[in-house]
């Protein structure tokens, strides 16, 4: 059929099912319209990105990165990449100033809440809460003034606005290592007053559960206790831009003369001749190209539903992965998927606060590109990232040179205190590290394509609400008790089977356990699937097992 079509595009698929009235194409057209990802919108976004890089050039741009990834996929390989950037939170009962002027404890902040967000140009905007976090950090810090009054408290990775020669957002643990006072700022009594600069220092305290949120705000600043200004962060802007750009030429096209319809796959980097082919759809879908807090099986179904060469992103990787026991479930599943399904040649992106959260096997064997967002220019509404790639040598046990690069980085900047390092200092040092590929400027998708960003926020908030409902104590007050009980039964079943086997030489079957306990054999199998307790110290586990066996007379 292709011989009868002039200028037939490369990387295109034909099928008799591809007709303008087919449900497949009509449904995709409607989805594009609803989500704001129409051919016209994507073409406009591409032109805006081209203009952005004329004004804010960087050694790499999003087109370069997208083409690099597509080229790897085209060579019959898959690709896993990490989008990295730190987020921080505050302990229970820390206060947040809302849009209506009232205060709310941080643990009570809800999705969709409007919060006052100061900007670096001195203005105040109303910013919507689009995600919630909760975790236990290594340390808590108290931010204290010169009279040792506690202004507010935060996690060790929380970014604090610091005034020096430049206005910087610096992690609390780096400021603590500086071991001297620094200047931050807030408001004098209320937001109608003037900004005030305060000399402060940090005191380290024992860790406790902290709470946080992501704001739809250029600065990511909000106002906390004593009218002090502090910060949260987000990484989704880059993830979404990269996925859209990889799909910029993908979709259904109709030949303007013959009416033939073909589907072009995402690996195509050059636009198709518009005079010959009419573009009908964009082959990008929020329901399938992005994962928002999905269960493991749903994640795999989404991944498998995509055409070859497609991007697939886990939007809030850390929360998603920790929620589902990242080390043992999702990470294991991704390894299996990359082994068994790499013929699909797809790109997999994970947003995560810290690259080291990935276990070494997954990090060293699967991840190909590391993207670290190290600064945001809120005045001109863009961020900058560092791109690194691992050493392809199979003989290198640390292909990311983590320890070596850490020592070299600190040596290069040894005369510059951590808290006083500017973005320019950081990028100069990064350029000398092994694996460094280049720096990347990233514009705000909210500014370039507000309708697409609005759709993204809708998906993010809806899925975060769903996840919050599933995990709320009100929804299931006995959830933790049930989990503890299943954990104990798991260990007891395993111990009983081992003990009986050692005494009789026979293995106790699930059916026999079912007859003894009254539990269904399927339920027992599900309980025994959880192997997280096997990570305990071996001697501790043996003591616990023997104690349980004594209690039941085994």
Structural notes for this entry:
With 554 residues, the protein is α+β, with helices and mostly antiparallel strands. The chain folds into 3 domains: 2-85 and 237-471, no CATH class; 90-233, Endonuclease - Pi-scei, Chain A, domain 1 (Beta Complex); 479-551. Helix content is 36%, strand content 25%. The chain has 18 helices and 25 strands. The strands form 7 sheets. Strands 20-21-22-2-23-24-25 form a 7-stranded mixed beta sheet, sandwiched between helices. Strands 1-18-17-19 form a 4-stranded antiparallel beta sheet, with no helix packed on it. A 4-stranded antiparallel beta sheet has the order 3-14-7-6. Helix 3 packs across helix 5. It starts with 11 loop residues before the first strand and ends with a helix. 35% of the residues are buried. The model is unreliable at 322-328 and 530-542 (pLDDT under 50).
Give a short synopsis of this structure.
With 554 residues, this protein is an alpha+beta fold. It has 18 helices and 25 strands.
What are the SSEs and their pairings?
Layout: E1 12-14, H1 23-35, H2 39-55, H3 62-74, E2 79-84, E3 90-91, E4 95-97, E5 103-105, E6 114-118, E7 124-135, E8 140-145, E9 150-155, E10 159-163, E11 167-171, H4 172-178, E12 182-187, E13 195-205, E14 210-215, E15 221-224, E16 228-231, H5 236-246, E17 251-255, E18 261-264, E19 277-279, H6 286-289, E20 290-291, H7 296-305, E21 311-314, H8 317-323, H9 330-340, E22 347-352, H10 360-365, E23 367-377, E24 382-389, H11 402-412, H12 423-430, E25 436-443, H13 445-448, H14 450-471, H15 479-504, H16 510-517, H17 521-529, H18 538-551
Parallel strand pairs: 2-22, 2-23, 20-21, 21-22
Antiparallel strand pairs: 1-18, 3-14, 4-5, 6-7, 7-14, 8-9, 8-13, 10-11, 12-13, 15-16, 17-18, 17-19, 23-24, 24-25
Helix pairs in contact: 3-5, 15-17, 15-18, 16-17
């Amino acid at each position: 059929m292709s011989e009868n079509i002039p200028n037939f595009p490369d990387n295109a698929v034909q099928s008799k099912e591809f007709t303008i009235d087919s449900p497949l194409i009509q449904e995709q057209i409607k989805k594009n319209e609803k989500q704001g990802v129409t051919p016209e919108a994507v073409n406009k976004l591409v032109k805006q990105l081209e203009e952005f890089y004329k004004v804010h050039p960087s050694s790499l741009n999003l087109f370069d990165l997208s083409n690099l990834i597509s080229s790897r996929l085209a060579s019959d390989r898959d690709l896993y990449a990490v989008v990295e950037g730190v987020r921080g939170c505050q302990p229970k009962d820390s206060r947040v100033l809302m849009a209506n002027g009232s205060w709310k404890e941080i643990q009570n902040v809800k999705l969709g809440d409007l919060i006052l967000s100061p900007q670096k140009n001195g203005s105040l905007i109303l910013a919507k809460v689009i995600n919630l976090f909760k975790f236990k950090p290594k340390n808590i810090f108290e931010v204290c003034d010169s009279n040792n009054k506690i202004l507010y408290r935060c996690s060790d990775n929380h970014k604090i606005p610091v005034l020096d020669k430049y206005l910087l957002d610096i992690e609390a643990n780096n400021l603590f290592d500086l071991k001297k006072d620094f200047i931050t700022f807030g408001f004098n009594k209320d937001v109608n007053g003037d900004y005030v600069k305060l000399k402060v220092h940090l005191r380290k305290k024992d860790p406790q559960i902290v709470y946080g949120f992501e704001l739809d705000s250029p600065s990511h600043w909000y106002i906390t206790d004593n009218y002090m200004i502090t910060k949260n962060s987000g990484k989704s802007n880059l993830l979404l831009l990269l996925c859209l750009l990889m799909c910029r030429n993908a979709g259904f096209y109709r030949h303007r003369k013959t009416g033939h319809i073909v589907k072009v796959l995402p690996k195509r980097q050059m636009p198709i001749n518009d005079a010959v082919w009419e573009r009908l759809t964009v082959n990008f879908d929020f329901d399938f190209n992005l994962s928002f807090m999905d269960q493991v099986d749903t994640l795999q179904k989404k991944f498998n539903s995509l055409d070859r060469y497609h991007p697939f992103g886990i939007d809030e990787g850390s929360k998603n992965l920790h929620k589902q026991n990242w080390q043992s479930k999702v990470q294991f599943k991704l390894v299996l998927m990359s082994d068994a399904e790499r013929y699909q040649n797809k790109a997999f992106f994970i947003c995560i606060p810290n690259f080291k959260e990935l276990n070494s096997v997954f990090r060293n064997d699967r991840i190909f590109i590391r993207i670290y967002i190290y600064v945001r220019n809120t005045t001109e509404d863009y961020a900058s990232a560092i791109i690194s790639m691992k050493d392809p040598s199979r003989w290198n046990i640390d292909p990311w040179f983590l320890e070596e690069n850490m020592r070299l980085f600190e040596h290069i900047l040894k005369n510059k205190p951590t808290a006083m390092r500017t973005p320019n200092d950081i990028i100069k040092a990064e350029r000398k590290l092994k694996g460094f590929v280049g720096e990347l400027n990233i514009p705000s998708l909210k500014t370039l394509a507000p309708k697409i960003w609005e759709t993204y926020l809708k998906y993010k908030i809806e899925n975060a609400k769903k996840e919050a409902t599933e995990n709320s104590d009100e929804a299931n007050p006995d959830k933790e008790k049930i989990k503890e009980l299943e954990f104990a039964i798991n260990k007891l079943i395993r111990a009983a089977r081992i003990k009986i086997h050692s005494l009789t030489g026979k293995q106790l079957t699930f059916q026999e356990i079912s007859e003894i306990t009254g539990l269904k054999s399927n339920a027992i199998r599900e309980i025994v699937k959880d192997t997280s307790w096997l990570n305990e110290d071996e001697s501790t586990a043996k003591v616990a097992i023997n104690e349980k066996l004594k209690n039941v007379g085994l």
